[in-house]
Description:
The chain is an alpha+beta fold. The chain contains 2 helices and 4 strands, in the order βαβββα. The protein has helices spanning 14-31, 72-84; strands at residues 2-7, 35-45, 48-57, 62-69.
Amino acid sequence: MRYQVSGIHIDVGDALREHVETEFGEIVAKYAGRPTEAVVVFSKDATEFVCEATLHLSTGLTVQAKAHAFDIYECFDKCCEKIDK
């Protein structure tokens, strides 16, 4: 699976990148056998972080989610919960 983790005016470090890959790996393993690509973009809106995630599956389905939170990890976790549901 190919991961693209980026930030708009935010430096995305290795720890956050590893967290994204681990969490998406667990979610995708439950539902889809062969995902092809995951795109995660972090940005900041005033005082909150914004996470937009897009997951492309080999079946042709595309899953998207967007979440807001004051902590960047919490923001990504909320986004994962939406994708999981």
